[in-house]
Design goal:
binds zinc ion; Arc Repressor Mutant, subunit A; globular; about 140 residues; single chain; alpha+beta; 6 strands
Length: about 140
C-alpha cells in the first residue's frame, strides 16, 4: 500500500506533512528520533510535526519505540489498528550507531508476557543492531 492509500485506509486526510512523515518512517529500517525528523522535515512547522506524530500514534500507524535524553524515537507499525496497538517486540538501542530497531521476540516469551496483566509492554535492550552486528 502506498502512503496516500495508507492514510486513506486509516481515515486520515492526506496533507503534505503526513505524507512526508509517514514516508520517512516507512523507508527507515529502524525507528527515527524526533530530533532527526525535525531535521529531515525542517520545512514544516514543529508543532504540526509533533501533532502529526500524536495522530499517527493514536491511529495505530506508528509507535514510540524508545526515549532517551528527552528525545523520542518513533517506528512504523504494521498490523496495528485504530482501536489498539498490537505488538510485543522489544526495542534495541544500538550502542554502536545509536539507532533504534524493533526486534521480534520469541513465541515463548510472548505467551509468558500475555499471562501478565499489562496494558502495554515496553521492553528495551542495548547492544548491536542488525546492521552493526555484521561488522
Ligand atoms: Zn502499533
Ligand atoms: Zn547499529
Ligand atoms: Zn517497535
Amino acid at each position: 500500500m502506498n502512503t496516500i492509500d495508507t492514510l486513506k485506509h486509516f481515515k486520515l486526510r492526506n496533507t503534505k506533512i503526513r505524507v512526508a512523515v509517514l514516508e520517512a518512517l516507512t523507508e527507515s529500517s529502524g525507528a527515527v528520533s524526533y530530533g532527526s525528523l525535525q531535521r529531515m522535515l525542517s520545512q514544516f512547522d514543529r508543532t504540526t510535526l509533533y501533532r502529526t506524530l500524536l495522530v499517527f500514534n493514536e491511529k495505530g500507524l506508528i509507535h514510540k519505540a524508545y526515549e532517551e535524553n528527552g528525545d523520542s524515537y518513533y517506528a512504523r507499525c504494521f498490523g496495528c489498528s485504530v482501536s489498539a496497538h498490537s505488538h510485543e517486540h522489544l526495542h534495541l538501542k544500538c550502542s554502536t550507531c545509536g539507532g533504534v530497531e524493533c526486534v521480534e521476540i520469541s513465541d515463548q516469551l510472548k505467551s509468558s508476557l500475555a499471562k501478565l496483566p499489562f496494558q502495554e509492554i515496553n521492553i528495551s535492550a542495548k547492544g548491536a543492531c542488525s546492521t552493526c552486528v555484521r561488522f
